[in-house]
Design goal:
Layout: E1 2-5, E2 19-20, E3 50-51, E4 57-66, H1 76-80, E5 83-91, E6 96-98, E7 101-102, E8 108-109, E9 114-120, E10 124-130, E11 150-153, E12 158-161, E13 165-169, E14 176-178, E15 182-189, E16 197-204, E17 207-215, E18 226-227, E19 233-236, E20 243-247, E21 253-255, E22 259-262, E23 268-271, H2 273-277, E24 285-290, E25 296-298, E26 322-326, E27 329-336, E28 339-347, E29 355-361, E30 369-372, E31 375-379, E32 384-388, E33 397-400, E34 404-410, E35 416-421, E36 427-432, E37 438-443
Antiparallel strand pairs: 1-2, 1-4, 3-7, 4-5, 5-6, 7-8, 9-10, 10-11, 11-12, 13-15, 14-15, 15-16, 16-17, 18-19, 19-20, 20-21, 22-23, 23-24, 24-25, 26-27, 27-28, 28-29, 30-31, 31-32, 32-33, 34-35, 35-36, 36-37
């Protein structure tokens, strides 16, 4: 499995996340285990290198690739030993390849080490390598590698070392966020004693710039961190997740009196608490927003509803539950007290400030689903059905209901694979193609007698 991020060439495009099966190995964002095999390599230094042919890639990603040709007589174990974790590039025509690097002197550096960590944002991708073989690629959490070694600047493909850090928190919820040009996170430099600093990472004149923004231990009530599109950073109220402090881009700390939340356009608005508890047709926001300088002023546009207010719910390209993107529209999955919903956000201007909000409740949704062919496919106990995402009509289309289903998977071509049993407990597996044609194969169940009770 491969997880891909960002598509940038000379102009920064939207980051895209895709998943493509490359080998019989699975990507995991929760762990990074070294293999028990003796496969290893020497340590390499990729600092200040650039990824070769960066402009031809529409995405980069973490994946397991097969090094060497498979022979027909090889066992699956022998074949699996050739599969290694690498940083890969995906071309515009869909081909993937292991990326190579170029240093400042123009020398080509092959990727001999094993990719151990990968986490992507709009303009920055954090990576780590291991000299020892890796079975699962982590996301810098408490099980895998805690510290990224390098950061890739997505607009250029240049790689910068993060060696000055002892710790960077890119895993804990609400401890990192991204503005238009920077990323903010909690961390600790090697020569510091405190874990309470919030750092800003950005690129200035083609060089990596690390800035200490604030020592949160000095501020009573500072909790986690969020950023707006301009680079003002905020603290959460630890009860309601409303913003209670702002540190402006010029380093001025202010207390926020009121309820402030972030809209889908990454702009922070003041929320009208009266309309929250007593909704009116005028919407829930006061016509106030926080501008680039961190000042509150009247807004020419205010969202009808607030929907995203936390770090995980801010940017369309990094939001984990984004289902689909279509031009200026973004479709999301949302669980609310009313149940499963599809939410559509449509931006109305190039700067992505004004937007429309639409939602569609899916009352019959199940917990097992996947996205393919601009549809949400659901697996129920005895049905596989879909909802057309773009239509926003909530209509249920049943494809097959002849078996008791266990799993569904999809491939990059839009085919849906399922497993289950029939009424006679025969194993069933099948495929649903993009035109909803179904092919099924069965394996008859066998029964084993384990005990016979004598009649006499």
């Amino acid at each position: 499995m491969i997880l891909l991020s960002k598509g940038v060439s000379m102009k920064l495009k939207k980051m895209i996340f895709l998943s493509i099966t490359l080998a019989a190995c699975f990507f995991s964002s929760c762990s990074n285990n070294l293999s028990n095999s003796n496969k290893s390599t020497e340590k390499q230094n990729f600092s200040n290198c650039s990824i070769i042919n960066w402009s031809k890639y529409k995405a980069i990603g973490a994946g397991f690739v097969n090094q060497g040709e498979n022979r027909a007589a090889e066992t699956s174990e022998e074949q699996s030993k050739k599969v290694v974790s690498k940083l890969v590039g995906i071309t515009e025509d869909g081909f993937y390849e292991t990326v190579t690097f170029e240093d400042d002197d123009g020398n080509t550096i092959e990727q001999n080490m094993f990719l151990a960590g990968f986490k992507a944002f709009n303009k920055f991708t954090f990576i780590a390598f291991s000299s020892e073989e890796v079975k699962e690629i982590g996301a810098f959490n408490n099980i895998g590698p805690n510290l990224p070694e390098y950061v890739i600047y997505n607009p250029t493909g240049k790689i910068y070392s993060l060696d000055i850090f002892e710790y960077i928190n890119l895993f804990t919820h609400s401890t990192y966020d991204e503005s238009e040009n920077s990323i903010f996170f909690g961390g600790k430099l090697k020569n510091d004693d405190s874990y309470d600093y919030i750092y800003e990472l950005t690129i200035e004149n083609d060089q990596l710039a690390i800035k200490k923004k604030i020592d949160t231990s000095k501020i009573n009530g500072w909790y986690c961190v969020a950023s707006d599109r301009y680079g003002n950073i905020y603290s959460y109220d630890d009860i309601n997740n409303w913003y209670n402090y702002i540190l402006t881009t010029d380093g001025t700390l202010k207390k926020l009196n009121g309820i402030y939340v972030k809209g889908m356009n990454n702009i922070v608005y003041e929320f009208d608490v009266n309309n929250y508890f007593f909704p009116s047709s005028e919407g829930n926001y006061k016509p106030l927003w926080i501008n680039r300088d961190g000042n509150i002023e009247e807004a020419s546009f205010t969202p009808e509803k607030y929907f995203y207010k936390g770090i995980a719910y801010t940017e369309p390209d990094t939001y984990a539950d984004r289902l689909l993107q279509d031009s200026n529209s973004f479709f999301y999955r949302h669980y609310s007290t009313e149940g499963f919903k599809i939410v559509k956000i449509t931006f109305l201007d190039e700067e992505k400030i004004s937007y429309e909000y639409e939602e569609c409740e899916i009352s019959f949704a199940t917990n097992t689903y996947l996205v393919a062919n601009e549809r949400l496919y659901f697996l129920d106990n005895d049905q596989i059905f879909y909802v057309n995402i773009k239509n926003m009509d909530g209509i249920k289309h049943v494809i097959i209901s002849d078996y008791f289903f266990k799993t569904i998977l999809s491939d990059k071509l839009g085919n849906i694979y399922f497993t289950g049993v029939d009424a006679k407990l025969n194993d069933v597996s099948g495929i649903i193609d993009v035109n909803d044609n179904v092919k099924v194969s069965k394996k008859n169940a066998t029964f084993e007698i384990v005990y016979i009770n004598p009649l006499n």
